[in-house]
UniProtKB/TrEMBL annotation:
This is Oxidoreductase. Pfam families: adh_short (PF00106). Belongs to the short-chain dehydrogenases/reductases (SDR) family. It comes from Domibacillus antri. GO terms for cellular component: membrane. The lineage of its organism: Bacteria, Bacillati, Bacillota, Bacilli, Bacillales.
Length: 253
């Protein structure tokens, strides 16, 4: 297969599962994350193969990213997975938390994408996969800023899909519901949402499998689970009705 897949936010959770799934599928992987110790541990778990390279960097650091992508060279697939969230009422989100969500979820994703687009256009081949969220389709209380960042991700994704379509470069959005990962250690430190929504939690290995499965295919988006996507469509058509009938469910955080 010999394709190189770059995964950001690869030190834990979905990122780590994406790495495992991509290696199992025969891809060369490059893992980028802030925590070098976790990256080294994941590489060890993957067998420390020559097909696994790791780089320590924050996706908000454009200079570091530019140097890393120069060292990587050819990127066949970029999976923008790095993300962070905090659940709180809009007027109670701390300024530093707002900045972090915007910088990581939006600016970091855009920066990584901008650094691989030129080579993909030149080759007329490549695939950009952005891990968005169902929150980018249907916003709920206590996630105003997080939902805003994921709406931004979907807007960016939809735009570059059209731009890059002329160059045979695929762009896919992955829209999962809540995933059972360490993401909630920050988003929901008291565990309130986890307790109430435990039955809705997705298995990160399953999300990773469905994500890696679309590599090399012109798939617009993957919605997991499908019933949540259907709910977002119904909300678009009948927003007032859905918000009234599903009010109790929306206030689970």
């Amino acid at each position: 297969m010999n394709k190189t897949v770059v995964i950001t936010g690869a030190s834990s959770g979905l990122g780590a599962e994406l790495a495992k799934e991509a290696v199992s599928a025969g891809y060369r992987v490059v893992l980028i994350a802030r925590r070098l110790d976790r990256l080294e541990q994941i590489k060890k778990e993957l067998g420390e193969s020559d097909n696994v390279r790791i780089f320590q960097a924050d996706v908000t650091d454009r200079a570091a990213l530019k140097s890393i992508f120069h060292d990587i060279g050819r990127v066949d697939v970029l999976i923008n997975n790095a993300g962070v969230g905090y659940f709180a009422w809009a007027h109670e989100v701390k300024p530093e938390e707002t900045a972090e969500m915007i910088n990581v979820n939006v600016t970091g994703l855009i920066q990584c994408t901008e650094l691989v687009i030129p080579q993909m256009i030149e080759r007329k081949n490549g695939h950009i996969i952005n891990i968005a969220s169902m929150a980018g389709k249907l916003a709920t209380p206590k996630s105003a800023v997080y939902a805003a960042t994921k709406h931004a991700v979907l807007g960016f994704t939809n735009s570059i899909r059209m731009e890059l379509g002329r160059s045979n470069v695929y762009v896919t959005a992955i829209n999962p519901g809540p995933i059972a990962t360490p993401f909630f250690e920050k988003a929901d430190p008291e565990g309130t949402y986890l307790k109430k929504a435990s039955k809705l939690m997705l298995n990160p290995a399953e999300v990773a499998r469905k994500t890696v499965a679309v590599i090399g295919r012109p798939v617009r988006e993957v919605n997991i689970p499908k019933w949540m996507a259907a709910g977002s469509v119904i909300h678009t058509l009948f927003p007032g009705t859905v918000e009234r009938l599903a009010r109790k469910a929306f206030f689970q955080k």
